[in-house]
Input
Amino acid sequence: MKNRARLAVPRQRRRLGYHYDPDAFGQFSESIARTLGTARFLVWQSGVITVWIAYNLVVPEAWRFDPWGRGLVLLTLLLSLQASYAAPLILLAQNRQEARDRAQTELDRKVAERTQADTEFLAREIASVRMSLTDVATTQDVRDLVDLDELRQKVDYLTEVVEKLAARLDREH
Output
């Protein structure tokens, strides 16, 4: 069954017959932008232009391929062509970098929010532990409240009472 006969499958527009990968093209444009944006490229381009002009000025008129009298039309055409392709490629690379920066900023914002929430939780927990510790009596507090001799006397008294109760229970059984 041909695709035209399938009613469940939407038709696609007819294209010119070419397809490109936007990500691969974006990577290509970034590599061009990285190359065009270097001092090395500017030096090489300046050297080529200097040699081009010097050659077309120095050599005999029969050997010139871009004569000075015509205004170096071929050189102008090549530089215009380079600029017409370089500008959109550089803009595409900048747009891709901006999208990456936006995604990284969003990720950083989420991490900062999580860190702040964790910090606030830990601060509340530490405050809770501090409040709990203020209610705990230390041995120094006990010493300050009750003299140790008095505490020993009370423990001895309670021990005697427990022994008497245990003896009475033994007699009854």
Residues 156 and 162 are 10 Å apart (CA to CA). The chain has a mean pLDDT of 84.
